[in-house]
Design a protein that fits this description.
single chain; alpha+beta; Four Helix Bundle (Hemerythrin (Met), subunit A); 2 domains; 3-stranded antiparallel sheet; 8 helices; globular
Length: 308
């Protein structure tokens, strides 16, 4: 008598091997088990049972590294290879889906813009940022010039003691970088903040520094931004030391933009505390205001390219 095939109780998977055209999967395809037993009639009947029988490995034409899925077909355990995946036509970036064709189009546009001679360079942006800071700095000077001397020199607990000290420190920072660090004469540096200058003297110093920085920037070329600046460290006695510091000209120029913006924010907060509206000027008003445009045109044409 023929008995039904018992269900599969366990699976044995052998490791796969790699070939040049894909992955070889060793599939378990024939499972047969036989069992001999004596029946009531005294005769021997062969009963089918599951035995493990391996066939030849099947070459799977899938790409190396794709996942395999174990399935059961007609009571036989198989390893099914997934279909080859087609290259994705989209890419995910920060949770958003972008078509690759659009990205390729944007990359081509960026490459064409870089080749466009009318595109503004980094040096052009630096020059406009310095012109913007120069324009707004003068507006803050006019506000400070209207304040009583007692308010102007009062202790505020900020980065520097008073409103006037903060404004003067920005001028000192320009002098420190452009006059003394750049020429490695830091041992000759003296602070304006400690000289006890009047507002009129500070205004004159601001004009000198502004003229020097403007001529300095228009003397540069785009390749000069990669140049290195080296200067000697000062000892505790203020003399020239042996330790040498180094940075690029690009780092120096961008740092001074950040330096002035940082202390301008301090001035805003301190002026608001005494109920004085600071002359806050955003980038859009700078580009759209007719007075700012006229200032920008004058700033772009220094009378002389020689440094003072």
């Amino acid at each position: 008598m023929r008995l039904p095939v018992q269900p599969i109780r366990r699976l044995a998977l052998l490791p796969s091997t790699h070939e040049a055209h894909g992955v070889q999967a060793l599939a378990l395809q024939g499972l047969r088990q036989t069992k001999v037993r004596e029946t009531k009639r005294g005769s021997l009947q062969r009963r089918q049972r599951k035995t493990l029988r391996l066939r030849r490995p099947i070459l799977c034409g899938t790409t190396l590294g794709q996942p395999k899925h174990r399935v059961r077909e007609h009571g036989i355990a198989r390893i099914r290879e997934p279909r080859p995946r087609t290259p994705s036509k989209t890419v995910s970036f920060h949770g958003k889906i972008f078509p690759i064709s659009a990205l390729e189009h944007n990359m081509k546009n960026e490459a064409s813009l870089e080749e466009d001679s009318n595109m503004r360079s980094e040096l052009d942006l630096l020059q406009e940022w310095y012109a913007y800071n120069s324009f707004v700095r003068k507006k803050y000077y006019h506000i400070l010039n209207k304040l009583p001397k007692k308010v102007l020199t009062r202790e505020t607990g900020a980065s520097f003691p008073s409103l006037l000290d903060i404004f003067t420190h920005v001028l000192d920072a320009y002098r420190w970088w452009f006059l003394y660090v750049y020429s490695d004469r830091l041992h000759e540096y003296k602070r304006l903040r400690e000289a006890g200058l009047s507002l009129e003297q500070i205004r004159d110093e601001e004009r000198k520094i502004d003229s020097h920085v403007r001529k300095f920037l228009y003397r540069l070329s785009l390749a000069d931004l990669e140049n290195s600046i080296t200067w000697h460290h000062l000892t505790r006695t203020g003399k020239r030391g042996k330790r040498v510091h180094k940075c690029t000209l690009r780092d120096m120029l961008w740092h001074m933009i950040e330096e002035e913006l940082q202390h301008r924010g301090e001035l805003n907060a301190l002026l608001w505390q005494i109920n004085v509206n600071p002359p806050v000027t955003g980038w859009n008003p700078w580009e759209e205001d007719s007075t700012a445009k006229a200032f920008w045109e004058r700033w772009r044409e220094p009378k002389s390219n020689k440094l003072n």
